[in-house]
Design brief:
- By secondary structure, this protein is α/β, with parallel strands linked by helices.
- It is built from 6 helices and 7 strands.
- The longest helix is centred in the middle third of the chain and has 25 residues, at about 100-125.
């Protein structure tokens, strides 16, 4: 099975591992992030491994820019099969000590960007079907006061995915989240495990709307 995957919020951990996992199966990969400097080395690594990969600079918190970026990714790849929202603001801080600006910035990345991505992907897949994936987290199931904004984001998008899954499935669009309940470092076994979970969600119609890694 081959296809094309856009990863919004591509980074050196789960994002790159997922690109490699899908790329090994012949998928075309488009890595998207706000910082162009982070994209170059990752794309070079993928291309060096024989994977058809492209870079795209886009800010997921800007809905118009994101929609334009998704159209560009669709052209780059010859037609997207799946879109993954992988962006997150990793702030270890409790809610009461965060500044007002911290809260606004974190919600923009951890929640708003995910909502924009889901909406844009739904529009793109409206006629032909496709798969929308979200990198979730264990904080959605077991909150921790020291990771307030990240936990809020993971809980919110898990709620959205579960709520949307039945209606989108009726229109041949799958939406699912990988709930990653472990620390993940670049090029680690955990990154590969999370990527494998996302691969299963994308390719197994019976996978449901959520899979957890490590398995419960």
């Amino acid at each position: 099975m081959s296809g094309a995957l856009l990863i919004v919020g591509a980074g050196p951990g789960i994002g790159l591992a997922t690109a490699e996992r899908f790329g090994r199966e012949g998928w075309t990969i488009v890595l998207a992030a706000r910082n162009s400097r982070s994209l170059g080395p990752m794309v070079a690594r993928l291309v060096g491994a024989g994977i058809n990969a492209h870079a795209l600079v886009v800010d997921a918190t800007d809905p118009a820019a994101l929609q334009a970026g998704l159209r560009t990714a669709n052209r780059m790849s010859g037609g997207l099969t799946a879109v993954l929202y992988n962006a997150a603001r990793l702030r270890q801080q409790d809610l009461l000590s965060m500044s007002d600006a911290d809260i606004v910035d974190d919600v923009a990345v951890n929640i708003t960007g995910a909502l924009h991505t889901i909406r844009a992907a739904e529009r793109a897949f409206a006629e032909r079907g496709g798969t929308i994936l979200v990198t979730g987290g264990g904080l959605a199931l077991a909150p921790h006061a020291d990771w307030a904004s990240l936990g809020l984001g993971k809980a919110a998008i898990r709620n959205v995915v579960e709520g949307l899954a039945p209606a989108l499935a009726a229109r041949n669009i799958r939406i699912a989240t990988a709930t990653v309940a472990t620390l993940v470092a670049p090029s680690s076994a955990e990154a590969a495990g999370a990527a494998e979970t996302l691969w299963q969600l994308a390719t197994d119609p019976a996978a449901g709307w959520e899979r957890r890694y490590p398995a419960a």
